[in-house]
Amino acid sequence: MCAYNQVNGVPMCARKDLLQKTRDEWGFKGYITSDCDAVAIIHENQTYTTSDEDSIAIVLKAGMDLNCGSFLVRHTHTKSAIEKGKVQEQDIDRALFNLFFVQFRLGIFDKFNDNRLGPSNVCTAEHRELAAEAVKQGAVLLKNDNGFLPLKRSEVRHVAVIGPSANDAYAMGGNYTGVPCNPTTFVKGMQAYVAQTTFASGCKDVSCNSTDLFSEAIEAAKAADIVVVVAGLNLTEEREDFDRVSLLLPGKQMNLIHTVASVTKKPLVLVLLGGGPVDVSFAKHDPRIASILWLGYPGEVGGQVLPEILFGKYNPGGKLAMTWYPESFTAIPMTDLMNL
Questions:
Q1: Which CATH number fits domain 122-339: 3.40.50.1700, 3.90.1150.10, 3.40.190.10, 3.30.70.330?
Q2: Which of 53, 89, 233, 254 sits in a 20 to 30 Å window from 43, CA-based?
Q3: How many Å separate Cα 228 from the centre of its chain?
C-alpha cells in the first residue's frame, strides 16, 4: 500500500522507483493499492499535479494497481484521463494483470470454489499459532535490570496483574481488528501459568481519570510475589482519524504505576500496549520497575503469549518499528503527516 505522505517531495503513490522496487528487487507478486483517497489528495491537497487526470496518470504509470476509494471512477476521472491521452491501454492492462493474477492464485475462478468463507476458515489452530508467533517475534524488551526476566515458575506462587487493559480482550486489538474467535486476556493467560493470579484494574478504563480504584490495586500488589502492570493505549486513545495530543500515558496511569511500585515486594514488570511510542522516561531509571515490555496490540492470543515470554519460554527479541527518544518525547511536535 502506498501511503499519503511524500518522500523528497513526491507523493508515495507516484514514486515509481519505490513501487517498482518491490517487484524488481523484492520479488513482490501481488498488487499495489493506495491508502484510501491517497490519490485524491495528490492534486486536491498536495497540489503536486495540476489536474485530477494527471494524478491518475502518474500513479498508474508509477505502478499502483488499485485505488482505495472512489476517486478513479468518481466523475469519470479515469475515463477523462484516457480520452485526453494521459493514460494508455497498457497502463490499464498492467494493473488488471496484477489484480487478476492474485485472484487466480487464490482460486477465486476455480470451477468448484464457492467462495463462502466463514469462521471455520480463520478460527483454526494453525491461524492461532501464526497469531502467537507474530506476538513472540514482535515483543520488545525495553528494560531488564539485573536480568530480572525471565521469571522462575518455581519461585512465583502469586502474581498480581494490574491495569485497566489487563482483563480486557478489546484492548488487545488495534485499528481494523476483526472479531476475535477466542480471545485470551492477560489475566486469563497468567492464570494458566500461575493458579493464584489476582487482578485489579486500578483505573475504570484506559483514560484513567480517577484514583478511586487505586486502593484495590495496592492491596493486590502487596500480597503478590510478582506484579505485572499493563499500561498504555487502546482505540479510545488512538485510531485512524483520531490522533493523540500527547505522548504521555493517558490520565493517571503514571500515578498508578508509581503507586503500585511503591508497595511491591519486588520490582514490577511494566507491559505497554499501543500502536506508537509513549513517554515512559519516568520508568527508565526507576529501580522499582525492573522490566519494560512493549507488545503493541498483540491480538487475541496476547494473553496466552505474555506469561510464556515472562517465564522465559520465548525471548522478547523484537525491534521497535520507530526510534524512541524517551528523554525528549514531550518536546516533539505532533505534525500533520499530510505536509511531510
A1: 3.40.50.1700
A2: 89
A3: 21
